[in-house]
Amino acid sequence: MLLRDWLASGDLQQWSATREELDRLFEIAGRDLTDAAVSDLSLDRRFATAYEAALVLATIVLRASGYRTRGSSSGHHWLTFALLPEFMGPGAEPRSRYLQACRRKRHQATYERAGVATQIELRELVSEVKSFQHEVSDWLRTAHPGLASPQEKP
User: Fold this and answer.
1) pLDDT number for residue 73
2) In sequence order, what E strands does the chain have?
3) How far apart are CA 63 and CA 59, in angstroms?
4) pLDDT tens digits for 89-132?
5) How many CB atoms lie within 10 A of CB 74?
6) Residue 23: inside a domain, yes or no?
């Protein structure tokens, strides 16, 4: 589907982000990354928390680009990740696919069964999210400098 189709369906809405809003979202992503390192939690919960950080970072991209998903709609996580290449360029396609796979694993761990995530998968996701955090920060400074905080250093 094209952006206009998502807008027409109501699953995507136009949005005017503010620097303060995006700063708060960066803080949430940072908190989630910190929480994902809490070893007293299960691997599934840590994986889900790292996944949430990725979702928040993808949300920053979407909002800075002038859009937001209808949060209560089914599939808003899918749509948020699917639109990454639209706004960050075709180089974001592999990350989009990877995060879609993580979305499915997180769904299993949250709603279907325990013991889904492995230590290796958790480490890989955390590493990917940290890299994504830096990329989003750099992208924001380049693509939307008015929305980037001068002190932003994830």
Assistant:
1) 62
2) 12-14, 67-69
3) 6
4) 999 999 999 999 999 999 999 999 999 999 999 999 999 999 99
5) 9
6) yes
